[in-house]
Amino acid sequence: MTQENFKRGDANRGKLRVFFGFAAGVGKTYSMLLEAHELVLLGKDVVVGYIEPHDRPETNALLKGLKQAPLKQYQYKDLTLKEPDIDYLIQTAPDVVLIDELAHSNAEGSRNRKRYQDIEELLQAGIDVFTTVNVQHIESLNDIVSEVTGIEVKETVPDTFFQQATLRVIDVEPDELIERLEQGKIYADENAKRALQNFFIPQKLDQLRGLAIQRASDHINRVRGKTSGMQNKLLAVVSDNYPKMAEKCIRWTARLAQGLGAEWTVIQIRHQADSISELPLAEKLGAEVVTIEEEDSFETVVEYAKLAGITDIIMGKNLRTPWYYKLFSEEWEDRLLKRLDDTELHLIPYKEKRSVFWEIPKKIIEGGGKDFGVAIVGVILATLVTEFMQYLHVGDQNLMLVYIFFVLLVARLTSGYFWSGLSSILSVLSFNWFFVEPLYSLTVYKQGYPITLVIMFVVALMISNLMVRLKKQADSAKEKEHQMEILYELNKQYVVADNQQQIFEITATYLARWLKRGVAIYDELGRLQHASGEKNQLLANSDESAVAFWSAKNQKEAGNGTDTLIGAKGFYLPIVASGQTLAVLGVLRNTSLPLENNQLNYLKLILTQLAVVLEQAQLKNQKEQIELENEREKVRSNLLRAVSHDLRTPLTAISGIAETLKENGSDLQTGTRQKLLQDIQEESQWLIRMVENLLSITRINMDTMAVKKNAEPLEEVVEAVYQHVQKVYPAEKLVVDLPADLIFIEVDPILMEQALFNLVENAFRHGTPKQPVDLKVYQAEGNTVFEIENSGEIPLSQFQKIQNNLTTEAEVPVDSKNGLGIGLSIVKTIVHAHGGRLALDNQNNKTIVKIYLPD
User: Fold this and answer.
1) What is the pLDDT of residue 8?
2) Are 81 and 66 in contact (CB under 8 A)?
3) Range list of β-strands (E), 225-298
4) pLDDT higher for 356 or 439?
5) 699: closest CA among 749, 655, 735, 661?
6) Nearest Cα to 647, choosing from 676, 687, 680, 679?
7) Are 506 and 490 in contact (CB under 8 A)?
8) Lowest mean pLDDT segment, chosen from 429-433, 535-539, 568-572, 700-704
9) Among 410, 406, 346, which Cα is nearest to 382's?
10) Which pTM was predicted?
C-alpha cells in the first residue's frame, strides 16, 4: 500500500459490478468470465483475482486466456486455504479484477475477515471489480431467507456495500436449474443428492428467485431515482430487551427503505445499563442509530418523530406479552397513534420472551456480598434505633418511619433494585416480629395493623425504587457532565492552539488521561504525530503505523476489536471531514483494556469535533498560503515593473549616446566626446548596481524569507560599504561613526553591505547636494542600529510607496534614478529577512533612515 495508491483511491474510486443470482449454478461465474473475455478483446487489462475451484468444465474452460494473479496461502489445522492477494493486485493495478464468492469469510490470519472488505480495498485503489453473490447472502434478506429455506445463512454482505454497484441478474428457470444439478453440472453426486433433498426444491427456488428479482428491481429504482417520488422518512423503534425482534424490525425497515429509496433511522431504547449501545446490523444496512434511555423514552420518540418529519414508524409487536402488562399500561402503538395521527405505524409480529429480572441470577446478586451485608446491617440498625425510640416513648406512629428511612439508606448505598427490595421485606417482617403484638410472632391481632404493614411495605418498596432510579440518573448525569467538561476543556485548548501539531498533542493528552491508556495520533499517511499515556510506546512502531495508514486510506476502523488487521495492539479510527482523511486516532485496546460502549460512543463524538477543528485549521493554513502567494505575486509584479522602468532610463541614455557617437563621432570635439563617454560609463555603473541589487534578492529564500547568517565584525561590514561608496561616488563625503567596542553581528555580509550602500546612495542622490552623509552605528535596547542621516527631507508618503515596491504604474517615476527605483524596497526585503525593521524620520530639514537588527 503506497502513498501513490492512497491518492489514487481518493481521487478515483473503482466501479463494482455484481453478477447476482438466486442460487448456486445459475451461471454467475460463467457470465462473469464471458464478459471478462469481451473486455480483453477491447484492450482492457483483466486479471483473475480468485475463482472458486468448482469442478465445472465449462466454467474452467473460460479461465484459459485470462491472466491469473497468484494466491495467498494460509494454513488452518491440516488444510491449506487460498485467498486472493490484495496487495499484489493493488500494486499491479489492472483495469478489472475478477473475484468470486463475495460473501466468503477469509481464512484466519487474513488482513480482513470478509472478502467484501478485500474488494472494498481494491475499489478504494481505483480498480474496477467483478464479483458474484446469491440473494441469500444479502443482510437485509437474511430473516426471510431463513424462513424460506429453513437454513440460517451465516455469511452475509451488508446492503450498504451495493449502493454504488451495478447489478447484472443471472436468471434461469428453477426446473432448468434442478436439471443441471441432476446432471452433475453444479455439485458432485453426493452433494447433488443432498442439495436436491434440502435446498434445491422447486417451491424454495421460486421464492428465492422472486426475492432476487425484487431486490434487483429495488436496487435499479434507487440508483436511477425511479421511486414513488414521496419524501419518506422511516423510523424503527427497537428495545434491547428483545434482540430478536430488533433484528427483524431493522431488516424489515431496511427492505422498505431500499424499495422507497428513503432515509431511515433506528432508535434503540436501552433498559439495561450494560446493554450494547451500538447496533452493527443497522449500521451495516445504512441506518443512522440513535440510542436513548428508558426514562421518558415514549416522549423522546414522539418529539424526535415530529422534529425529523418521520412518515413511517416501524416497531415490533410481541405476541407473548403477559396479559397483566396491559392492565397497568397502555400499549405503545395505541399511544403513538393518538400523538402522531399523521404518521403511519407498521407493526412487526414476533414471539420472544423478555429478559426479565429474575431470569438472570447475575443481576439478582448485583453488588455481591458487600451489598448483602449493607442490607442486613441496615435492617439491624433500624431495629435497634426503633427499640431505642420505643423506650423513649416517641409514639408508635413514628416507629415504622425509622425502617423506611433505613430502607432508603440501603437503596442509596447498594447497587440495583434487589437489595432495597430485600431490605423492604426484612424491615416489614422485623417490625412485625419485634414491635407488633403478639411480639416475636408474625401473627397480627391488632385491628388495622395488617393494612398498615402492607402500606409500609409498598411505601418502602416505592421509595427505595425511586432512590435507585434517582441514583442511576445522578450517575448518568455525572458521567455526561464529566464528558461535557472534557469537551469544553478540549474546545478551549483548540481555540488557543497555533497549529495542527498542537491540536494533535492536546487531543492525545486529554484522551490518554480520560481513557487511562496509550493514545496516539497519526497523519493521513500513517506517520506518528504524537503519543501519550501509559504504554504508548506499543503504538509507536512501523506495524501499528501500517494499520493507521490502512485506516486512513480506506476511511474505516481497523485494528484490535474490528474485522480488519485484528492482530494490531491498537484500535484505529479515521478522522474524516468533507470526504478527506485528516488524521487517524489510535487507542491501545486488548482483553485487559477493553473499550466500553459508552466510551466508544463518546470517543466518536470527540473525533467529530476534532475533525471540524482540523478542517478549520487546514482551511486557515490554505487561506494563509493563498494570501502569501498573492503577496509574493504582487511583489514579483511590482518588482518586475520597477526593474523595467529602472533599466529603461540608463539603456535609453546609452543607446542615444552610442547613436550620437556613431553618426557624429568624427565631428565632435574632444571634450564633448569625453563627456559622452563619461555618461556611458556612469549609466553602465548604474546598470551594474541594479544587477547587484537583483542578485542580492536572489540570495534570499523567498519561501521562508531566510538568509544564511554568520557572526561578522561590524567594522568589516561598514568598511566594505565605505570602500564601495568611495569608488562609486569619489566626490561625495561619507562620515562614519562606529562604537569603540568590538561588535559582532549575525548577518549575511554581502546582503547587509548592499542594503547599507543603497541607503547611502539614496542619501547622496536625494539629499542636499554637496552635503556630507553620516553613517552612525550604535547599540540600543537589544538592537544594533545603523543610522544614515542626510540634509534635506524625503516625504514620508514617498518613502512608504517605495517600500511597497511602487504599487501602481502611476507611482513609477519617469527617471528612476531620480526616484529611488527599487533600491529602498530591496533594503526592506533584506532587513526583514534578517528579522529587523526599517524606519524613517524627518526633523530639522534632515532625513534619518534607521535599520534595527536584533542582537
Assistant:
1) 38
2) no
3) 233-239, 263-270, 288-293
4) 439
5) 749
6) 687
7) yes
8) 700-704
9) 406
10) 0.65
The identity of residue 257, as a single letter, is A
Nearest residue to 684 via CA among 710, 647, 715, 711: 647
What letter does residue 596 receive in the DSSP assignment?
-
Please name the residue that has the C-alpha cell 473486455: 39
Q: Is the pLDDT higher at 224 or at 715?
A: 715
Tens of pLDDT, residues 366-421: 556 777 787 788 888 888 888 888 777 776 667 777 877 887 787 777 776 677 77
Looking from the CA of 424 toward its CB, the CA atoms found within 13 Å total: 21
Q: Which three cell numbers stand for residue 120?
A: 472494498
Residue 90 DSSP symbol: H
SS3 readout for 284-311: HCCCEEEEEECCCHHHHHHHHHHHHCCC
Please give the Cα distance from 214 to 247 (Å, whole number): 21
C-alpha cell at 846: 534632515
DSSP H helices, 395-499, are: 399-413, 418-435, 449-496
Range 174-204 burial, b when 16+ CB lie within 10 A, else e = beebbebbeeebbbeeeebeebeeebbeeeb
- Of 595, 643, 649, 606, the C-alpha closest to 806 is 643
What cell numbers appear for 447 in the block?
385491628
Peptide bond into 713 cis (omega under 30): no
Determine the Cα–Cα distance for residues 717 and 700; give it in Å rounded to an integer: 18
| pLDDT for res 9 | 40
- Note the pLDDT tens digit of each residue in 680-698: 877 787 677 667 666 666 6
Of 381, 388, 432, the closest CA to residue 407 belongs to 381
Detail the DSSP E strand segments found in 150-293: 166-169, 233-239, 263-270, 288-293
- What amino acid is encoded at 693 in this protein? N
